[in-house]
Amino acid sequence: MLGLELGINRRFDFLPGFWSGFGVEANYTFMDSRVNVPRQFREGEELITVKDKTSLPDQSKHLGNLIVFYEKGKFMVRLAGNYRGRSINAINQNLGKDYYVWTDSNFTLDASATFALSSKIKFFLELNNLTNEPLKQYIGDKRRITSYEWYGIKGQLGVRIDIF
């Protein structure tokens, strides 16, 4: 297994006035995982064993996110884009890699905002999957879709009160 993670978190506090509240956070992860999946089949009277190489289930090779934010005084606003590369969902050991179930790559966009009425009382709004990105799964290649699911935009609106 081989991996690499890169990240940056930068507040633009060197800018004047209003602009000093902006900032950016970004990270990227590369993970190259390998596993040998043994498979046996018969050719006539002979039993043949092969090993298919693949990545670990539910382990995307590429992950990343980018967050643009504004934090100043009582306000905080964030917009986050999240990317997850394709990954194997299920390994069919008997039929081989042409029949593995994959979860396709996807990109979601989330937003959040907070207003601090005081140091103990904060109002917040969180919205997830603003683009209503679907979850898509397929067998072997992208033309053999097994599921295409939309979960919609979800959100929360509330007040947080710190008692202690």
TrEMBL record:
Keyword Transcription: no
GO cellular component: cell outer membrane
Gene3D superfamilies attached to this UniProt entry: TonB-dependent receptor, beta-barrel domain (2.40.170.20)
InterPro entries: Beta-barrel_TonB, Beta-barrel_TonB_sf
Keywords tagged on the record: Cell outer membrane, Membrane, Receptor
Localisation: Cell outer membrane
Domain TonB-dependent receptor-like beta-barrel: 3-130
Superkingdom in the source lineage: Bacteria
Keyword Lyase attached: no
Protein name in UniProt: TonB-dependent receptor
Organism of this sequence: Myroides pelagicus
